[in-house]
Every structure is written in structure tokens, then in C-alpha cells.
Specification:
- The complex is a heterodimer.
- By secondary structure, chain A is mainly alpha-helical.
- Chain A is built from 11 helices and 5 strands.
- Chain A has helices at about 1-55, 65-70, 75-90, 95-105, 115-125, 135-145, 150-160, 170-185, 195-210, 220-225, 230-235, and strands at about 95, 130-135, 165-170, 190, 215.
- The longest helix of chain A has about 55 residues, at about 1-55.
- Chain B is about 55% helix and about 5% strand.
- In chain B, helix 6 (about 165-175) crosses helix 9 (about 225-250), helix 14 (about 320-345) crosses helix 15 (about 355-370) and helix 17 packs antiparallel against helix 18 (about 460-465).
- The two termini of chain B are about 40 Å apart.
- Classes of the chains: A mainly alpha, B mainly alpha.
- Chains A and B meet through helix 1, helix 3, helix 4, helix 6 and helix 7 of A and helix 1, helix 14, helix 17, helix 19 and strand 7 of B.
- Chain B: It is a multi-pass membrane protein.
- Chain B: Component of heteromultimeric potassium channels. Identified in potassium channel complexes containing KCND1, KCND2, KCND3, KCNIP1, KCNIP2, KCNIP3, KCNIP4, DPP6 and DPP10.
- Chain B: Keywords: Ion channel, Ion transport, Membrane, Potassium, Potassium channel, Potassium transport, Signal, Transmembrane, Transmembrane helix, Transport, Voltage-gated channel.
């Protein structure tokens, strides 16, 4: 009898540990289910807080019409038309980088315009504030459309000079050129080869880098452009855009 | 293009200055916009309600009626306003779409009226904003279903047959709608009666009857009156077989009928009898034969033809199969868990009934459903503890979800349907919007082939492009600048893959980089491109031509013979498109035109056209089809 109970207890222990394992398993399963629902609640609450925060961002109003007219080369009417369009698209008065990229991408449905839009954004956003206000927008447009040749070329130099150190080196130029080629998309004739941007950059440096020191400065840039008839002529192309 | 992009066009063009120093070719000339650029307020009078808006607002969507030159048709000179004889309440929503870029669906309006207005103003309903999309879809679906029901009720049985109906049609009608004629009704009730008789006979023949004289054991009635029962069975099967064959004969589509659920039930009901006839009186086979008799009970399902409720129940079960499946799955999970626990808990007990885990399944199910037969009972303490947990959780696992599932049936079902619908329709919506966008890219490629790249003679290109809006001009010019900067051209997917193939095959084509410079060369690559585009054109909508076009035909030939594959049809579109397809292979085309002086410069033809602005608006692909068209035949 004693032996029987002994064996009885022994087997019970074995099976007991097994049942314990199974019970623990069950508990874990229940726990994971409940935890998941908790997590969902948390993310939902977080989104709500984010939304509230976003709405509280104040919208921006530009300076007076007269002031803008004095600062730029646009007439009052043109400024009015531009502002109405701008305000309609961005009621808050500022454009952030994502919206900017989206807008620009719509003009180039064939390819990917986001990299070039990024560089453009940085050039437009002269104050590096992370968003473009109407004044930045207008200033850039005024330079590009109604500015002098020197101003336009300076703007373009600032576009190419990604790190704003006053020099355009080959890496920066390659980035820019690659971004432009990205806008073309995949289906082009002739087909884009991998070293096409590099060749383009080399040709550019051949033309622009006068003293062959591997970088292009602002003066070299402006000088070389002024020597090139094509560029001079095409700079006048966009006079009547507005 | 998408909403409001037109307002950013000046910015995009200005940003193109950034490409200029990189360009290795000269930039094309910008389009000259002769219209006055100053913004003005337009007056729109819709059935007496006067709206005012900026011209720019309407120009945002150039592919709608209000954004294009189509609205000139509605211009009233005396009152200096655009007059539309349409619903002014609806127009408010349309105009808000132009202002805000979002189209809302007014909930109180009739869905069909709304759609008609949208169609009139050239706006596709797919761009309704997400806020109103679900409501719109639901209403539309409701409407369509109601219409379908109405038409179905009209077509269904109650209408009298056309006089020339064949016997087949009459028979089918009699089967499907028994109340149309007395014969059908009689047949309907007779079959119902025999189904009942057959089912009752199946049941009764297993009841024990008084034993035969001289024997003690109770016999089931089926064996005592075996002759009677077999006669009854044979008669029923004969009647069912006749009915099935008649239905098969009368069915308008035999394949569909044979595959329908009811016919499968019919077949399964009568099959055992025939199999029994065929099978030999063998001992081992008769065991299987006995199993077949079970299938006779399926005759009861034949009642579903007679009962609408059964059919609805069947449909509901079918529809909620996923919910029921999930219930089953969770039950199985719980059963397996508890069976395992009970088995290991009871393993130590001597003489236990829990001989294996599958054996424990029975205990778990009986306990969880609170049946408690008592044939398997745990002995050990651990077993009793887990057994009680099992029965408590059984109440929770089964009793709770079932009413919740039942009450959520409709809700979950509809929700799932709506989610899937949304997803499916989302794809369709995006596809349509993508198609409209693609139209824009195709427009540019098309524009290139029209010879729009010939920057030199702006006059000759003018007639090709004058039907585009200023926005399109500017956009195309922008894309051309990009091409010139990068020294590459935009093409479409087909030609690109083709060129890739040709390159890989080592095929050298004598192609210059600029397509436009080919004044009359017809290389195979070129011709295939144009052929494909021509076929695409033939497939797309073609507008009716207008105005005097003859001068342009010859001009087309001399300038760009490749681009002259546009079908013209004043009479029948179909005939011309057939011609076009046949003529694609040969490009030495002769132009059939009414003899007029070919030297007429296209400028003279210009004054004719502005008076007749483009007509087709909704599909982008039609914008380049509205140009002067040419009749072609190949030599």
C-alpha cells in the first residue's frame, strides 16, 4: 500500500508538472490576446494627441501686399493671383516638405521627383525653417522669373551647392544630376545607362571648372554661364510665366 | 491632373531654371499665351441662381465642362454670363468641388440625380472624397439592387409567356413557378407528397413491429413488410427520376442546372436506389450498400424547393461560414487544451476511462457543453480541479460567444462585405484615377509625335496644338525642357521594352535621338511605334471631325507622315477604324482629300476651328483626337 501510494505520488508529480506547463501555456495565450488589445488602445490614444497637437500649429500670414510688392518684381495683381492660389492649396499658409514633394511630383508622373524636390525645397526655404512661407515662395519666384541674369545664376548656384559651403564639388553635382535623371523615369529613349549622370557631370565640370581645381565657385559658374550662348538664351525663356 | 496643380504651374516652370546650366541642348520655345492673364470673375447663372467665381478656380480642372472651353457653348452674350438650365442646388456642390478640390455627396439628394449632374459637368464620381464615399456607395448599391429587384419581379413568372413559347419554356416555367397553372400546382403538390411519403417510409421501416408468428425477436417493420416498403421506395424513386429528367430537359441551360445545388440533391436522393440495382448481392459489398441507404435521408432536402425559408437558411449559413468556422476553431482549441490537461491529470489513476487524448475529447465536449453524461468522470484531485475549470470555461467559451455571434451576424457580415467591397472598389477607383493621370502622360507623348517638337516652325505646329489648354502647353513645354536637359526622351513602356529587346539582339536602328527630326523615314522601329499608337487611337474614342480639314492633309504628309494615322469618320466610326487597322502595315499612304490648294498655310485653317471648340471632355485620350483628321488608304 505504501509502495502504491509512493508510485502514485511519483507519477502524479510527473503529470502534475506537465499539466502545470499546459496551464502556463494557456495563461500566456490569454495574456497575449489581452495585451494586443491594450496596445491598440494606446496607439489610438497617441494618434488623437498628435492630431490635437497638429491642429494647434498656428497658421502663417504674409506681410502686407505693399511690402511684398516693394520687395519683389511682381505687380499687385500678380501677387494677388499667386497668393490666392497658394492659400487655396495650403490654408495654413506654409508648405512643408512632404506637401512640396507631392505637388512637384504631380508634374512628373513618369519618374520620381522627390529627390530633386528635396533640393528645391532647401533652396526655396532660405531661412532653413523646414517650411516654406508665402514670402519665401514669392522671393524665389521673383528671382527666377523677373530677376537679373546674375541673380538667376546665383540662385541656381545655391541650388547646386547642397551644403552651402560656396563650392560645388563633383559629389554634389552628381547628386543633383542623378535627381534630375530620376525625374525622367525608367522609360526613356535612349535607355538610361548607369554612368550617364556621371558623364553629364564630367561634361559640366569640363565647361565650368576653369582652374581645374575640382570645385566650381560662384564666379567661375557665372562666368562660364555667361560665355555660353545657349544658357543665356534659355534664361530668358521663363519671363512670361506669370 | 490632380487638384489645384494648375496653380503651381508657374512655380514648377520657374524651378526649371535649375536645369538650364546642365542642359546640353537648346531649350524649346515656350508656348505663347495670347489670352489675357489677368484673373477675372465669371458669372454663372444656374436656373436663376447666380454664382460668381474666379476664372482661375474653374481652370483648375481643365477636363471638366466648366474648366474647358466647352462652357463657351453656354455663354449668354446679352447678360454676359454662363447660363445652365440645371439644378441649382446640385450646382452648389459642383462648384464647391472646384473651390476646395473635394467632391462631397449631399445625403438628401437622390443618387441618380447627383450622378446625372456629375456626368453633365464632366466629373467622374470616383473622386468623391473619402468622407462621403461610403454613403455614396451604399446608396448606389441600394439603388441598383432595388432596380434589379424591380426588373426581376417584372421578368419573373407573373408575366404571361410570349405566344411562341416552346414546350420546353412552358415546362420550365411550370417547374419554377407552380402557381402559374393548375397542372404545375398539381405536380408541385404531388412531388411534395411523395417526398413526405418517402421520408416517412424511411423512418417507419426501422420501427420494430410485432414479430412474425413463431418467432420471438422483434422485427423492424422494414423486414416484415419488405415487399410493401420496397414497392413504395421504387415508386418514389421512379417519380423523382421522372421529375429530374423532365427538369433537365426543360432547363434553359443544362450545364448550369446540372451544377445547381437542388439538382445535386435530387441526384443524391435517387442514386442509392440505382446503385443498389446495379450492385451484386454480395456479402462484403452489401455492407457498403447499407451505408448508401443513409443517403436516402437527403430526400428531405428536396423540401427546400417547396420552402422559401429553408433556402434562406441555407444561404445564411453559407454566407456566415467564416464566422461559424472561427467558432469551431476556437472550440477545437479549447477542447484540445482541456483534453490534454485532463488526460495527463488522470494518467495516474488506475482503470481510468481517459485512455488517450482523443478519448478525452469526448469528455471535454460533453463537459463544456454542460451535457455531463457521466460516462467519463475524473477520479484524481487534479483531474477534478481541471474538470471543474473545464466546465466553467465551457460555459464561457460556448454560451457567451454564441449569442454575441448571433447578434453580430448581420453586423459582422455586412461589415466584412463592405470592407471587401471598399477594397475592391478602391482598386477600381485608383485604377480609373491612374488611367486619367496616364492620359496626361500619354498626351505628352502624343503631342511629341504630332510634331510638336519642331520648335522652328511654330506655325505648323500651331494647328496640332491649338486645342490644348494653356496649362497643357506649359506642362508639355516643361517636360520638353527636361528632355533637353537630360538629352533623353520620354517614351512609353512598350517602345522602351522593344528597344531593349532590339539592343540585346544586336539590332542597330538608324534612329536619331529626336523623333521629330525624322521627316519621312520609316524605319521598322518607328513604324511599329506608330502602328501601335494608331491601334490604340483606333480603340480610343474618336470625336466627330469638324471644319475644313483638307488643307491639313497634305501638310500632314509632307511634315510627319508617321503621325498621320488618325482615323476620320463623318459617317460610321467602325468602318474607318477597321480601315485603319488594315492600313497600319504600309506607310506609303495616299491622302484622299477634296482637291483644294495644298499650299494653304495652316493659319488660314485656324480661324475656322476656334469657333468650334472641342467636344469630348471626359477621357483624356480624346484631347488629341479632336484635331483635324485624315482619311487614309494604303497603296
Amino acid at each position: 500500500m505504501h509502495a502504491h501510494t509512493h508510485t502514485h505520488i511519483h507519477t502524479l508529480n510527473q503529470s502534475q508538472t506537465q499539466t502545470l506547463c499546459v496551464a502556463v501555456n494557456m495563461g500566456l495565450v490569454m495574456g497575449t490576446f489581452s495585451m494586443q488589445s491594450n496596445k491598440q488602445d494606446r496607439t489610438y490614444r497617441k494618434d488623437k494627441i498628435d492630431d490635437d497637437f497638429e491642429l494647434s500649429i498656428v497658421c502663417h500670414r504674409p506681410e502686407g501686399l505693399d511690402k511684398l510688392e516693394a520687395q519683389t518684381n511682381f505687380s499687385k495683381q500678380e501677387l494677388q493671383v499667386l497668393y490666392r492660389g497658394f492659400k487655396n492649396e495650403c490654408p495654413s499658409g506654409v508648405v512643408n516638405e512632404d506637401t512640396f514633394k507631392q505637388i512637384y511630383a504631380q508634374f512628373f508622373p513618369h519618374g520620381d521627383a522627390s529627390t530633386y524636390a528635396h533640393y528645391l525645397f532647401n533652396t526655396f526655404d532660405s531661412a532653413h525653417s523646414g517650411s516654406i512661407k508665402f514670402e519665401d515662395f514669392i522671393m524665389a519666384l521673383s528671382t527666377l522669373l523677373r530677376g537679373s541674369v546674375r541673380e538667376k545664376l546665383t540662385w541656381t548656384f545655391n541650388l547646386y551647392d547642397i551644403n552651402r559651403d560656396g563650392y560645388i564639388n563633383k559629389e554634389e553635382m552628381t547628386d543633383i544630376v542623378r535627381a534630375i535623371y530620376d525625374m525622367m523615369g525608367k522609360y526613356t529613349y535612349p535607355a538610361l545607362k548607369t554612368d550617364t549622370p556621371k558623364q553629364h557631370v564630367d561634361a559640366f565640370f569640363q565647361k565650368m571648372d576653369k582652374n581645374r581645381d575640382g570645385v566650381v565657385t560662384l564666379d567661375e559658374f557665372i562666368l562660364s554661364c555667361q560665355e555660353d550662348e545657349n544658357i543665356m538664351r534659355s534664361l530668358q525663356l521663363f519671363k512670361n510665366v506669370i | 491632373m490632380a487638384a489645384g496643380v494648375a496653380t503651381w504651374m508657374p512655380f514648377a516652370r520657374a524651378a526649371a531654371v535649375g536645369w538650364l546650366p546642365l542642359a546640353q541642348q537648346t531649350m524649346p520655345k515656350p508656348p505663347v499665351d495670347k489670352t489675357s492673364r489677368s484673373d477675372e470673375i465669371l458669372f454663372v447663372n444656374v436656373s436663376g441662381l447666380r454664382f460668381q467665381t474666379w476664372k482661375n478656380t474653374l481652370d483648375r480642372y481643365p477636363d471638366t465642362l466648366l474648366g474647358s472651353s466647352e462652357k463657351e457653348f453656354f455663354y449668354n452674350e446679352e447678360t454676359q454670363e454662363y447660363f445652365f438650365d440645371r439644378d441649382p442646388e446640385m450646382f452648389r456642390h459642383i462648384l464647391n468641388f472646384f473651390r476646395t478640390g473635394k467632391l462631397h455627396y449631399p445625403r438628401h439628394e437622390c443618387i441618380q440625380a447627383f450622378e446625372e449632374e456629375l456626368a453633365f459637368y464632366g466629373i467622374i464620381p470616383e473622386i468623391i472624397g473619402d468622407c462621403c464615399m461610403e454613403e455614396y456607395r451604399d446608396r448606389k448599391k441600394e439603388n441598383q439592387e432595388r432596380l434589379a429587384e424591380d426588373t426581376e419581379a417584372e421578368n419573373a413568372g407573373d408575366a404571361p409567356l410570349p405566344p411562341d413559347a416552346t414546350l420546353r419554356d412552358k415546362l420550365w416555367r411550370a417547374f419554377e413557378n407552380p402557381h402559374t397553372s393548375t397542372m404545375a400546382l398539381v405536380f408541385y403538390y404531388v412531388t411534395g407528397f411523395f417526398i413526405a411519403v418517402s421520408v416517412i417510409a424511411n423512418v417507419v421501416e426501422t420501427v420494430p413491429c410485432r414479430p412474425l408468428k413463431g418467432s420471438i425477436k422483434d422485427l423492424p417493420c422494414g423486414e416484415k413488410f419488405s415487399v410493401g416498403f420496397s414497392c413504395l421506395d421504387t415508386a418514389c424513386v421512379l417519380i423523382f427520376s421522372c421529375e429530374y429528367l423532365m427538369r433537365l430537359y426543360a432547363a434553359p441551360s443544362r450545364c448550369d442546372f446540372a451544377r445547381s445545388v437542388m439538382s445535386v440533391i435530387d441526384v443524391v436522393a435517387i442514386l442509392p436506389f440505382y446503385i443498389g440495382l446495379v450492385m451484386p448481392e454480395n456479402e462484403e459489398v452489401s455492407g457498403a450498400f447499407v451505408t448508401l441507404r443513409v443517403f436516402r435521408v437527403f430526400r428531405i432536402f428536396k423540401f427546400s424547393r417547396h420552402s422559401q425559408g429553408l433556402r434562406i437558411l441555407g444561404c445564411t449559413l453559407q454566407a456566415c461560414a467564416s464566422e461559424l468556422g472561427f467558432l469551431l476553431f476556437s472550440l477545437t482549441m479549447a477542447v484540445i487544451i482541456f483534453a490534454t490537461v485532463m488526460f495527463y491529470a488522470e494518467k495516474g489513476t488506475k482503470g481510468t476511462t481517459f485512455s488517450s487524448i482523443p478519448a478525452s475529447f469526448w469528455y471535454t465536449i460533453v463537459t463544456m457543453t454542460t451535457l455531463g453524461y457521466g460516462d467519463m468522470v475524473p477520479d484524481s484531485i487534479a483531474g477534478k480541479i481541471f474538470g471543474s475549470i473545464c466546465s466553467l470555461s465551457g460555459v464561457l467559451v460556448i454560451a457567451l460567444p454564441v449569442p454575441v455571434i448571433v447578434s453580430n451576424f448581420a453586423r459582422i457580415y455586412h461589415q466584412n462585405q463592405r470592407a471587401d467591397k471598399m477594397r475592391a472598389q478602391q482598386k477600381v477607383r485608383q485604377a480609373r484615377i491612374r488611367m486619367a493621370k496616364k492620359g496626361a502622360t500619354n498626351a505628352f507623348l502624343q503631342h511629341k509625335e504630332d510634331g510638336g517638337l519642331q520648335g522652328g516652325d511654330g506655325d505648323s505646329t500651331a494647328f496640332c496644338v491649338k486645342n490644348r489648354s494653356a496649362f497643357e502647353h506649359q506642362h508639355h513645354h516643361l517636360l520638353q525642357c527636361l528632355e533637353k536637359t537630360t538629352n533623353h526622351e520620354f517614351t512609353d513602356e512598350i517602345t522602351y521594352s522593344e528597344v531593349c529587346m532590339m539592343d540585346s539582339m544586336g539590332f542597330r536602328t538608324s534612329r536619331s535621338t529626336s523623333l521629330s527630326s525624322q521627316q519621312g523615314s520609316t524605319t521598322t522601329c518607328c513604324s511599329r511605334r506608330a502602328k501601335r499608337r494608331a491601334i490604340r487611337l483606333a480603340n480610343s474614342t474618336v470625336s466627330v471631325s469638324r471644319g475644313s480639314v483638307q488643307e491639313l492633309d497634305t501638310l500632314h504628309v509632307t511634315k510627319t507622315p508617321v503621325g498621320t494615322q488618325y482615323p476620320q469618320s463623318r459617317s460610321s466610326l467602325n468602318a474607318r477604324t477597321e480601315d485603319l487597322k488594315l492600313n497600319c502595315t504600309d506607310y506609303t499612304a495616299a491622302i484622299i482629300s477634296i482637291p483644294t490648294p495644298p499650299a494653304n498655310s495652316p493659319d488660314e485653317s485656324l480661324p475656322n476651328s476656334p469657333a468650334i471648340p472641342g467636344i469630348l471632355r471626359n477621357s483624356r485620350s480624346s484631347t488629341f483626337n479632336t484635331q483635324e483628321t485624315v482619311k487614309i488608304s494604303s497603296l
